[in-house]
Amino acid sequence: MKEIRSMTLQELTHDLVEEGEKQFRAKQIFAWLHARQAKSFDEMSDLSLALREKLKETYELVTLEQIQVLVSALDGTRKYLFRLPDGHLIESVFMKYRHGNSVCVSSQAGCRMGCRFCASTLDGLARNLLPSEILEQVYQIVRDTGEKISNVVIMGSGEPMDNYENVLRFIRLLTDEKGYHMSQRNITLSTCGIVPGIRRLSEEGLPVTLALSLHAVSDEERRQLMPVARKYPLQEVLAACDAYFEKTGRRVSFEYSLVKGVNDSGEHARRLAVLLKGKNCHVNLIPVNPIKERLFQSTSRAEAANFQLTLEKYGINATIRREMGRDIQGACGQLRRDYAGASLSL
User: What is the structure's pLDDT at 333?
Assistant: First the structure.
């Protein structure tokens, strides 16, 4: 059976016309799937009972099972644990900002990139998510909160460039004017530095924000934190980011997790400023979320402020990311791993 929420309007129209249905039915169904976030065919009340039954026989409509929701007492951040139809677990996060609500979605169940400060990668990659499974994270949170989502960051579990085709289809479906119709400019795609993927994305004609997980100022230091750096040297990655800006006109965001005693010194800040000199970019400084499986500790707020000040002194635009949901296992992949461990111990 085809998974209907992963289909484009054009694909759905083609299928329905082939089955003898009118074209406008595809638009109705597409709107139910994406503008109204229907969980079942039975909700599609303006379709005939016969057509709804036909859809049930022909298509699969994937939904996620909400296992757990943690709500931060500090800032209202909501962290969701979802179960996929095959039993794998993923996480999503809802965050409220003055400029609008954001959702952080996962693109894979687990991750094979091996970044040493991330809990998502500790058990490796289980599988890629379908476009519908990425969409459902947004739609489930819309249904659960009753809130409009204006921004999406593909920055949860998984490496989006390692699931390129499904992630691109997710973006196109989420931003389709006949569906949820989110602005493509309000989507951020984060990568640890898969150079072919960055260069390919620059040719897609999508004005999404590219966020590069940088986290170090030299190849040697980056390889210690991020195994992907063994394959893609820093200068090659930065050249791909430059090409992305030249093609899209979109300022690149560099994510820099501050790890106490590892990459947070004044000298690191100066070297980072030299590395990024002349680039139209923004640096997100992120005091790392400690996870119990690693010994990394977070930089203090004062040290992070000094790091930011040094960058700005050298003309590099930088902000310290507001720590959202720190009291609810905010580290990426942490809730999923803890839940799985607790289940195994029962």
Answer: 58
CB 102 within 8 A of CB 150: yes
CA-to-CA distance for 82 and 132, rounded, in angstroms? 14
For residue 47, what pLDDT is reported?
97
- Alpha-carbon Rg for the chain in angstroms: 21
- Show Cβ contacts of residue 225 under 8 Å, excluding neighbours closer than 6 positions: 115, 116, 117, 215, 216, 259, 262, 263
With beta carbons less than 8 A apart as the criterion, state whether 181 and 173 touch: no
Residues classed as catalytic? 91, 332
Strands 89-97, 78-83: parallel, antiparallel or unpaired by DSSP? antiparallel
CA–CA gap between residue 191 and residue 159 (Å, rounded):
6
Q: d(Cα 93, Cα 76) in Å, to the nearest integer?
A: 11
Q: How many residues make up the chain in this entry?
A: 346
* Residue 294: C-alpha distances to residues 220, 247, 324 (Å): 20, 38, 21
Contacts of residue 154, Cβ cutoff 8 Å, sequence gap at least 6: 104, 105, 107, 134, 160, 167, 170, 187, 188, 189, 190
* Single-letter residue type at 233: P
Residue 336 has a pLDDT of 62
Round to whole Å and give the CA distance between 29 and 55. 10
Per the CB < 8 A criterion, the answer to whether 104 and 95 are in contact is yes
Neighbours of 96 (CB within 10 A): 15
Question: Cβ distance 277 to 318 under 8 Å?
Answer: no
Which stretches of the chain drop beneath a pLDDT of 70?
Answer: 290-295, 325-326, 329-346
CB-based contact 175:8 (threshold 8 Å) = no
